[in-house]
Amino acid sequence: MTNGSELQVLKNEVACLLGRCMVRLQQYERLMKEIVAHHEIHGSLRELQKIAAERIEEASSKTLGTLMARFLGSYLVTEETDRAPGTVKGKQDNDAWLGLHFRMVFPAEDRVQIERSLKELVELRNNLVHHFMEQHDLWTKDGCRNACSELVDACDRIGRHFEQLREWAGRLNDMRHQAAEFVRSDAFRDWLIDGIAPDGSVIWHSSGIVRALRDASKELGIEGWTPVASAGRWIVQRYPEQRPERYRCTSWRQVLHESRLFELRYRNMNGQRAAWYRSRKQ
Questions:
Q1: What's the average model confidence in pLDDT over 30-35?
Q2: Whole-prediction pTM value?
Q3: Helices in 184-282 by DSSP H: which ranges?
């Protein structure tokens, strides 16, 4: 083989290895974009599909450095991270709103090491894209051999990073699957519609039983006040699922007291003491 043909073979090998590195980096960036786009979402249920599409579109235009900054700031976090959920522009008070935020938690020292490693990958990527040609003499055989050696090492490094990212993406997919199962469950329905959280606590202002008490007051109220006993019978007929025991209460009066959204007053009716209620003024 002549010196000229041997040099051309080496050049071709450099081109092949460089191309392999670029493909692996693009695979890495695509997977990073998926994680950044899907690891959290906040919005009204009627706009959720649109918001998800917007997140995907936004992530698609970001550089690897920007993606990693978001990834490290929001998905790969330390135990001490306390991040408030995102806000939604144009949110209405009567909107049904859902916020999901998945993240992986690492000890601070591990997180620091991961961040350093990912920054090195960004530097490697930028070096390959912008400076590789000027750093290697590809007009000599030794220059090509050195370039090939560096590219083989770079390919291996990118491959290791990609496998690690695939593992993290797999964990995200597992968490999203679990969340989807929960959304289809009765527990989620109780939480969304009736304000009963999975731990049994009650979000009273959005609870179904409070809505039922207010509906009863509109139908049965006398000068703003409603008999508790009458309201209870009215609700049982129209909203049989709205029972005090579902909300860890033993009576309608306890519901009124625990919610802190109503005033309770006792009156004598036909010689008997009866409880009346009305909504507290905001």
A1: 95
A2: 0.68
A3: 186-194, 208-220, 228-238, 252-259
CA 85 from centre of chain: 9
Backbone dihedral angles phi then psi of residue 261, each to the nearest 5 degrees: -110, 0
Separation of alpha carbons 267 and 276, rounded Å: 7
Please give the distance of CA 116 from its chain centroid, rounded to a whole number.
Answer: 25
Amino acid at residue number 40:
E
Question: Residue 99 and residue 130: Cα distance in Å, rounded?
Answer: 40
For 194-279, CATH gives 3.30.420.610
With left for phi above 0 and alpha for psi between -120 and 50, is residue 248 left, alpha or beta?
left
Pair 121, 63: CB distance under 8 Å: no
Burial of 147 (0-12, 13-18, 19+ CB in 10 A): buried
Residues 115 and 106: beta-carbon distance below 8 Å: no
Let me know: does 128 contact 154? Beta carbons within 8 Å. Answer: yes
Write down the domain spans for the chain.
3-184, 194-279
Tell me the pLDDT tens digit for each residue of 211-221.
Answer: 999 999 999 99
User: Can you read off the two tokens belonging to residue 222?
Assistant: 């006398």
Strands (E), the chain: 40-44, 76-78, 97-101, 104-106, 226-227, 262-269, 272-279
Place of tokens 């006792």: 266
Q: Strands, DSSP E only, in 63-216? A: 76-78, 97-101, 104-106
Sign of CA dihedral 148, 149, 152, 157: negative
- Say how far apart CA 280 and CA 282 lie, in whole Å: 6
